[in-house]
Specification:
Elements (H helix, E strand, L loop, with lengths): L5 H18 L2 H12 L2 H8 L3 E2 H7 L10 H10 L3 E4 L9 E4 L1 H4 L11 H6 L2 H4 L5 H4 L7 H6 L3 H7 L1 H25 L9 E5 L5 H9 L4 E6 L1 H4 L8 E5 L11 E3 L4 H10 L1
Parallel strand pairs: 4-5, 4-7, 5-6
Antiparallel strand pairs: 1-3, 2-3
């Protein structure tokens, strides 16, 4: 097939590059998951300073035949700004790696750790429904998740305790940062009220922060029955199970926190 003109050829090459770029975007995401599986952020953090590649390789639980691929993995993650590269001196050619602000959020012990999020999002339970996306458009199933699993997302979580705990961990991870900001920047919102209900409050991360900062408040954590079934309340925190689309416990105020993760799950998968 003959290409007419230099400008037309350039457009075709840009279009082809755009297609390839989107096809291979998964490499960045799954390389990040691989780094978390291998505990690379924690290993570099525990080293206490920029870590030479050779020492990083020696610290990883990998097969000796795979050592040459770690530099390639780190190159991808450095390009994605999850790690930074350093050299000890101009004459020292071995690269060293340090954490960035993003990879610090992937540390297991970080107070606002997001370590569990990639593990969950890239679990086959979450990924496989996307392969049903086109099929879902041709049938009567309410969601691609239902097409793949024969059951809705929240019903599946209710029947699989391990999966449910992981969902709760993710919601709590997001809420730890959110609640800190709310308490610091919006204290006046809680003045003058005696009770509140946290709708979809999960295991009570938000309510615990509020109750600690405002002990006069009586907090109700309201979520699906399987989420709150085994949770123990305190003097000013009560757990109530139910369906927010049917009824919400009475209180002076309501917290309804919605995040990107929650929206994506409900819009596409739930």
């Amino acid at each position: 097939m003959e290409i007419q003109g230099e400008e037309h050829a350039s457009k075709l090459l840009r279009a082809q590059t755009h297609v390839w770029n989107h096809i291979f975007k998964f490499i960045n995401s799954l390389s990040l998951k691989c780094a978390i599986d291998l505990s690379i952020p924690d290993i570099i953090h525990n080293y206490g300073q920029p870590m030479p590649l050779s020492k990083l390789i020696a610290s990883l639980p990998i097969h000796p035949s795979k050592t040459c691929f770690i530099s390639r993995l780190m190159r991808i993650l450095t390009h994605s700004d999850f790690f930074s590269e350093h050299h000890a001196t101009e004459n020292e050619h071995e690269v060293m790696y340090d954490l960035t602000d993003a990879s610090k959020l992937l540390l297991k012990d970080h107070p606002f750790s997001m370590n569990c999020v990639p593990q969950f999002i890239f679990d086959p339970i979450m990924i496989n429904p996307w392969f049903q996306f086109s099929t879902w458009f041709t049938n009567e199933d309410p969601t691609p998740f239902s097409t793949e699993n024969g059951i809705g997302f929240w019903d599946f979580a209710g029947s699989e305790p391990k999966f449910s705990h992981l969902v709760n961990d993710i919601m709590a991870s997001d809420t730890r940062l959110f609640s800190t900001v709310v308490i610091e920047k919006c204290k006046t919102v809680f003045e003058g009220i005696e009770s509140l209900v946290d709708v979809g409050g999960g295991t009570g991360t938000m309510a615990k922060v509020v109750a600690e900062s405002f002990p006069q408040l009586k907090c109700i954590v309201f979520d699906l029955p399987h989420v709150v079934a085994d949770l123990q309340g305190t003097e000013n925190i009560k757990y109530v199970g139910g369906d927010m689309f049917e009824a919400i416990p009475h209180a002076d105020s309501i917290i309804l926190k919605v995040n990107i993760y929650y929206l994506s799950i409900n819009y596409i998968l739930s």
